[in-house]
Amino acid sequence: MGSVLVTGGAGYVGCHLVRLLRERGARVLVLDDLSTGHVDSVGAEDFVRGDIGDEEAVTDLIRDNGVSLVYHMAACALVEESVADPARYYERNIAAGLSLLRSVLDAGASGLVFSSSAAVYGIPENVPIEESAPRRPVNPYGRTKAFFEDILEDCAEAYGIGVVSLRYFNAAGAWPDGSMGEDHDPETHLIPNVLRAAMGVEPAVRIMGTDYPTRDGSCVRDFVHVCDLAEAHVLAADKLERGKQKAFNLGNERPASVRDVVAAAERVTGKKIPVVEDARRPGDPPKLVASAKRARDELGWEPKFPELERIIETAWKWHRSRPQGYGKGR
User: Which of 141, 159, 168, 212 is flagged as catalytic?
Assistant: First the structure.
């Protein structure tokens, strides 16, 4: 591998990709503004603190380092926040993303792998969801991802760049040895909040919505291990085709409700986890479960951590070893 650039590489999924790429022999440059990422997760070598919207600086970074492939993972990514402050999401995920795309084109990079989201589907007509399903996002976050996919498709055809869009379902888990994991402030993801309640850091887990049309009334999601997501990004680089955009769902095809996650975490931790029932969170679809057949067939992707309890075990190892996150624990 030659030089690659990972935007948002100090973030949760990004840092796992950076480690995997480095282990595979790539020189990886990390561009992150550290608004949500942690430099401790990737180290100072080849790290650049900067903004993807700084077109001149990013163009120089790509050109001067001979970068041919860009993994674009920098984005605002909270559904509830996007409902409360949609302008911020359009500015970051669309306007700044478009500046990055201009930099990629101007510097002569040949490919881009984009971190998209299952949020592009909104409330799906059929589950599991295939890539051909209608994209009908129900919140601003999902709309920014769908719109940027459209931009990439137009630009791939017009300018001859190769693009792969990876539609994540629910990223979860941690590096298996517990050395890397999830550290957000505030933390909005379910599994870390469940484990924080298990450790007594939080008094209880909020179940946001108990009247959804699901088996137990709570939201149903498809949890995919962060290392499996990273592996899919590496495989996607081999599927870039100039002038085209390809899209792949990344999920385990295993539905799990919020209550299922709490029960699985109780089994993993051996602790009773208190819950508090709360109102629905704005913008949340009732059920999102992937069909990942295309990724398996075309990328050769096979998740190594398909079981929910195994995913939670890796997260539990991280949270116990670093209960206060990067740079604060032992």
Answer: 141
CATH class, range 190-222+253-321: alpha beta
The phi, psi pair for 123, rounded to 5°, reads -95, 105
Annotation says 12 is catalytic: no
Question: Mean pLDDT, the chain, as a whole number?
Answer: 95
pTM of the model: 0.96
pLDDT of 212 above 60? yes
Does position 329 have pLDDT exceeding 50, yes or no? no
C-alpha radius of gyration, the chain, whole number = 19
| pLDDT at residue 330 is higher than 70 | no
Look at residue 1 in the predicted model and tell me its pLDDT.
Answer: 56
Which residues does residue 27 pair with via DSSP β-bridges, in sequence order?
Answer: 3
Q: What is the pLDDT of residue 328?
A: 53
Mean pLDDT value of segment 188-194 = 95
For the domain bounded by 3-172+223-250, which CATH number is listed? 3.40.50.720
Tokens found for residue 209 = 């919505």
Give domain limits for the chain.
Answer: 3-172+223-250, 190-222+253-321
CA separation for the pair 8, 50 (Å, rounded): 10
